[in-house]
Amino acid sequence: MSTVQPMSASSTQPDPAGLKIGPLWFMPGYTAGNLATVNFASFCVIAAITFMGFAQPYVLTEILHIPEARQGTFTGNLAAAAEIFQLMVVGFFGAWSDRVGRRLVFGIGIALIALSYFLYPLASSEPQLVIYRMIFAMGCAAAPIMMSAVIQDSVQEASRGKWVAINSICTAFGVLFMALFFARLPDMLVARGVEASLAGRYAFWTVAGFCTVTGLLIYAGLKKGVTAIDPDKVSVWSKLGAGLKIARDNPRVAVAYGAAFIGRGDLVIITTFLSLWVVQYGTAGGVATAESLKKAGILFGIVQGSALLWSYFMGLLSDRLNRLTALGLGLAIATLGYTGMGLLANPFSPMAIPTAMALGIGEISVLIAAGVLVGQDAPIRIRGTVIGVFSIMGSAGIAFATLVGGITFDLIGPTAPFLMMGLLNGLLLIAAVTLRRKELLGSESLLGSE
Q: pLDDT tens for residues 344-369?
């Protein structure tokens, strides 16, 4: 059976009824205010979500006093349980948004995230922390998938790569803001004489207030109404079945799903285990927990700063290259970055800087290229379903990365999760290259038969 070549973005004629801003074409009905809100949401939501994994070592150490020998496994198990729960409810939020609109579900998701940040530092036991993390997981099942949906809903095909890249830049700025401001709050408060456990609580409550204000602004600014992309009101398992059938019929979608699994896993490995590694490495050398967290924020800032600088260039490549080729490029860089970090012995050594840069470039390249690929190859009539399954695969990747990453962190070493993700990126790179080669050979065969 011959491979059907998808139409390139450059050959897609834009609809002049839609708004044009610079080189970007948007769907009819979207205003400049709606689009600015999408960018604002990309900045704020990721800043709020990534703080949880980044600051959790502070709660484990200073509030619950969990021994370091158990922190890796506990962190992995907690995050994996949250992602499994999130996977169970994400389909509901996706289908519900088709009925009531994206903005309501978006607002509810951010409200749940704010509530979890208020409660999290009040936990007095591990079971309480698990309960509060489930509230956070429910919010994360709603807000990020709505963010992905409004990004894909709002743009025309000719501009999809650049628009996804611009929102990825906003995301990188958000993570950078988290690393340079939120992550430093405990150390700043301790330096002003606040007791360590109280400093952690105040930091979490500051983020809770940030989420509350953000939710109100996003609800007010997003486009009103319902986007009837997936009109069938089906269960999460029916969605999963329909989405997997598309992947069986179109191997490009299957590769995009694999990239969602790995790409989201990559991100959580950075946000969860990079800070845990740096905090443990620092405290083992006699550095205070708050100071170690600040040092982790600097390294994390290098990762996200590199991603920020590369994002738009990757979007341009995604619009100009075959989108499977663009994904292969991202996977190659990610393989080098994660493998390099996995082989690093000292996170404060000079080699940590170029390694962190490669890590950031690889991570953002995979996320952008995967999002653009699935947005292009998903049939329009069931794009909502495909994006929902794409998000489910991402949640499954996070569950896998945190669970297995936590075990390998404790049993093998703090760099083992990075080596694991380097291997997975390499395996998917082989699959993408193989599929692209088959497409090219299929095109040559068709030309030869004419």
A: 888 878 888 899 999 989 988 998 89
Encode burial over 39-64: b for 16+ CB neighbours within 10 A, e otherwise: bbbbbbbbbbbbbbbbbbbbbbbbbb
Q: Are 168 and 315 in contact (CB under 8 A)?
A: yes
| Separation of alpha carbons 73 and 76, rounded Å | 5
Nearest to 45 by CA among 126, 128, 146: 146
Closest CA to 267 of 307, 207, 326: 307
- Spatial neighbors of 91 by CB under 8 A, at least 6 apart, are 235, 236, 237, 239, 240, 388, 392
Question: Would you say domain 35-223+237-439 falls under CATH 3.40.140.20?
Answer: no
Residues 6+ positions from 359 with CB-CB distance below 8 Å: 270, 303, 306, 334, 337, 338, 340, 341
Distance CA 239, CA 119 (A): 33
Euclidean distance between the first and final Cα of the chain, in Å? 17
pLDDT at position 357: 92
**Tokens 């200073």 -> residue:** 62
* Residue-averaged pLDDT of the chain: 82
Query: 265-278 in b/e burial notation, b at 16+ Cβ within 10 A?
Result: bbbbbbbbbbbbbb
Show the tokens assigned to 335. Answer: 């393989």
d(CA 402, CA 265): 8
Nearest by Cα to 272 from 419, 55, 82: 55
**Are 94 and 234 a contacting pair, CB within 8 Å?**
no
Instruction: Write out pLDDT tens, residues 70-115.
Output: 777 787 778 778 877 877 777 677 767 767 778 898 999 999 999 9
Looking at residue 333, its amino acid is I
The CA distance from 95 to 104, in Å, is 13
Which residue's entry shows tokens 């982790």?
296
Ranges of each domain in the chain: 35-223+237-439
Rounded Cα–Cα distance for residues 157 and 161 (Å): 8
d(CA 208, CA 187): 18
39-46 mean pLDDT:
91
Place of tokens 């905090």: 279
| pLDDT tier, 6 (very low <50, low <70, confident <90, very high otherwise) | very low
What counts of helices (H) and strands (E) characterise the chain? 15, 2
What 3-state class would DSSP assign to 28?
A: coil
